[in-house]
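Reopening closed ticket. The problem is back. First fold of the pair:
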Amino acid sequence: MDFLYFPEDKTEYLPVLIELLVLLVLCFIVFNLFRRISKKQELKAKEIEERILREKQHQSAPNKTEE
């Protein structure tokens, strides 16, 4: 039983190499897309967090002056 097939004609490797290169390029593109989207989400979350903290500080400041 031959589980591995190594062709004598090395040109049979070309379609596989082309497919591998295409998939690697697609993986690279998708990875960078995920990184870019993640960065945007991180900035949005940071803005929301800062806004919430400012609102809390603004609401707690008048309460402290009343005491």
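Second fold of the pair, where the issue appears:
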Amino acid sequence: MNEAAVRFPETTSVTLTVHHLCGGLAGKQQVIRHLPVVIGRSHRCEVRLAPDDTAASGRHARLSFDGTAIWLEDLESTNGTRLNGNDVTRASLTSGDEIELGCGGPRLRITFDWPAAQWIGNAQSETYVLGTCEFPLPSPWRFPVYGLGLLLLLLPLWLGSLVAAVLLMPLGILALLLAWSMARINLTITPSHIEYQGIWQQVTLPWSEVTHLHARLRAQGRATYTIVGKTRRIHFRPPNDASGIELAQLIVRRTGRQWETRATR
């Protein structure tokens, strides 16, 4: 079995819009549909600045996408790169972030339409944009249990037996209630912790206690994720791959840890 950090496909559709706020091209916009791109005054840059934007270098910074986040990277520019007023060498972007290329140089606002990417960013922006969200996690057993409940309710009618009705119908009602509760499994994400509300248990795990992230990737079927804490752990299987990727991305940003993966058949 191979273990590595989770990598999500780079072919995910991401469209960026670069808004020139200050500089020789102030008021202009440019739509970017393919990453990576280089920002600078050089004519070879995909996001080209005005020749008189002398605070910016010829090849000043790069925007890239690794399948998990959109990244801003300074390319050893002469005057440095700022993100929302802070000097950075490499940082992930949130839609609406402002980039300054050199002190007093041209400023750009970056917006994008990839919903999951808007969850990526520093802790402050995550708290503001995301707050608390809840993901339903349907149990794979709910339909078999629901079917069993219906069978136990209908079997006495088919047999025409009062004794069978007395014995089996309460069990059928119990099975239906159990199946209903299985459809209400939730994973709640907050800025401070993650909470799993299952059929028989409820686990609250503060982000500060998370020690490992494990993902078991199956050739067929959904992946299984495990969040390991100092004394507790949470297992979950998202209803589909898309929601699984969103959850995995968000948990990585909250914990600062990478998923260790195991591929199984």
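Update: turned out to be a display glitch only; the data is intact. Residues 159 and 180 are 26 Å apart (CA to CA). The two ends are 10 Å apart (CA to CA). Please close again.
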